[in-house]
């Protein structure tokens, strides 16, 4: 059976790592990316690492005509798209508060345009990059997939809204299948050191900020609060290796091809919580580099603790995170130390 996939946002951090896993599993991904938060060099490195040519189209998921042409060309060449793996989105929480319409237009509007083009091309399987941020403040931990959906920022609302769009789209029959993957905190990099996270500007997230301090691009880490109800007072999160996350997408594509359920959502996390200071220490161990820290006030909107119950993904997808915090730190450090300026090296 042909295994052609459309991977939107495939030049991004998680998408690029997932391309390697999909190619290794025998899939033929076609990438659509507008390079609003990535560069073409990423795809060249994916080709070098995989030994496979990666077909890609530079464009926007909101361009219906481009989508129609892409689906038609693949069908005409005898390699119709079997499933769409949808990474393309804006993802900065703070930016979404400042500019919500850009997030609703790109993330929600872009996804509905994509789904409409899929319907015209009779492409029926969809794997969606959702986020644990849909849960909001925890009623109880660990988060299960049944936890209430209560986002606390426009970015999180775009993910919750797209999940609802997918439930309704898949429910209309015609063998449609939608799988939402609720990522917790992906960190680290491909073990080769050739792919990794390359945030534009000042990193919003903890791990890339740590690696930039280690490589000398930032002077010190600002720790946002040490007065939370946690073991050491700093925020606790469920960090998972980006390569484990990539593997989860291969399982989700396979699941979409065999399930009778129109819609399903799965937590992708390790099921373990790690505090800011624990992650800093693990990174110092892995890198041999001391990370200077200054404790500041809490960051508005942050929650104290969040970690996943990943049992459903194991039961239904046969997936569980395999890599340790130490491996995440070692791989993240190899990437950053070999690429101090990201992909512009
Ligand atoms: P990223 O910004 O590195 O990758 C997103 C890619 O999509 C980029 O290459 C960007 O150029 C592209 N893109 C954005 N809008 C587009 C559009 N309209 N048309 C075409 N391409 C477009 O982000 P990432 O960290 O790889 O995240 C991938 C997905 O996972 C996103 O949907 C994000 O919301 C979700 N997610 C990320 C995290 C995380 O911590 N990184 C956590 C949970 C969920
Ligand atoms: C982790 C911990 C901070 C930076 C976000 C998004 C979420 C998802 C993943 C897209 C917290 C602390 C952070 C720093 C710090 N992205 N921290 N100093 O907030 O759990 O999740 O990224 O889907 O939607 O909300 O991740 O890495 O920003 O923060 O002390 O410079 O590190 O307070 O406790 P977060 P994060």
CATH superfamily of the domain at 4-187 and 238-270 and 307-322: NAD(P)-binding Rossmann-like Domain
Q: Which ranges are low-confidence, i.e. pLDDT below 50, for 5 or more consecutive residues?
A: none
Chain oligomer state: single chain
List all distinct small molecules, including ions and cofactors, that are bound in this structure: nicotinamide-adenine-dinucleotide, UDP-4-deoxy-4-formamido-beta-L-arabinopyranose
CATH topology of the domain at 4-187 and 238-270 and 307-322: Rossmann fold
Instruction: Tell me the Rg in angstroms.
Output: 19 Å
Strand order of the largest sheet: 3-2-1-4-5-6-11
State the total count of DSSP E strands. 13
What integer is the average pLDDT? 97
> What does the largest sheet look like?
7 strands, parallel
| SSE string | EHEHEHEHHEHEEHEEEHEEHEHH
For the record, give the distance between the C-alpha atoms at the N and C termini, rounded to a whole number.
40 Å
Assign a percent range to the helix content: 40-55%
Query: Which word captures the global form?
Result: globular
CATH architecture term of the domain at 4-187 and 238-270 and 307-322: 3-Layer(aba) Sandwich
CATH level-1 class of the domain at 4-187 and 238-270 and 307-322? Alpha Beta
């Amino acid at each position: 059976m042909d295994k052609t996939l459309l991977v939107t946002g495939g030049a991004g951090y998680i998408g690029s790592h997932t391309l390697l896993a999909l190619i290794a599993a025998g899939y033929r991904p076609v990438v659509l990316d507008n390079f609003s938060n990535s560069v073409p060099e990423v795809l060249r490195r994916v080709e070098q690492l995989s030994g496979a040519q990666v077909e890609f189209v530079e464009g926007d998921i909101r361009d219906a005509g481009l989508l129609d042409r892409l689906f038609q060309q693949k069908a005409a060449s005898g390699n119709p798209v079997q499933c769409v793996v949808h990474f393309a989105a804006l993802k900065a929480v703070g930016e979404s508060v400042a500019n919500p319409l850009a997030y609703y237009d790109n993330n929600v509007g872009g996804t509905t345009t994509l789904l409409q083009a899929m319907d015209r091309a009779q492409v029926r399987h969809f794997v969606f990059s959702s986020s644990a941020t849909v849960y909001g403040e925890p009623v109880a931990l660990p988060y299960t997939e049944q936890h209430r959906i209560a986002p606390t920022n426009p970015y999180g609302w775009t993910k919750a809204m797209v999940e609802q769009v997918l439930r309704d789209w898949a429910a209309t029959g015609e063998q449609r299948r939608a799988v939402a993957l609720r990522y917790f905190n992906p960190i680290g990099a491909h073990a080769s050191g050739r792919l990794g996270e390359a945030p534009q500007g000042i990193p919003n997230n903890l791990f890339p900020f740590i690696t930039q301090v280690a490589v000398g691009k930032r002077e010190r880490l600002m720790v946002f609060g040490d007065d939370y109800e946690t073991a050491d007072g700093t925020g606790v999160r469920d960090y998972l290796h980006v390569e484990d996350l990539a593997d989860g997408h291969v399982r989700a594509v396979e699941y979409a091809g065999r399930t009778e359920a129109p819609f399903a959502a799965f937590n992708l996390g390790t099921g373990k919580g790690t505090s800011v200071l624990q992650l800093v220490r693990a990174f110092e161990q892995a890198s041999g580099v001391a990370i200077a820290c200054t404790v500041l006030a809490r960051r508005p909107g942050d929650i104290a603790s969040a970690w996943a119950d990943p049992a459903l993904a194991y039961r239904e997808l046969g997936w569980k995170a395999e890599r340790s915090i130490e491996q995440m730190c070692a791989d993240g450090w190899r990437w950053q130390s070999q690429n101090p300026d990201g992909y512009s090296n």
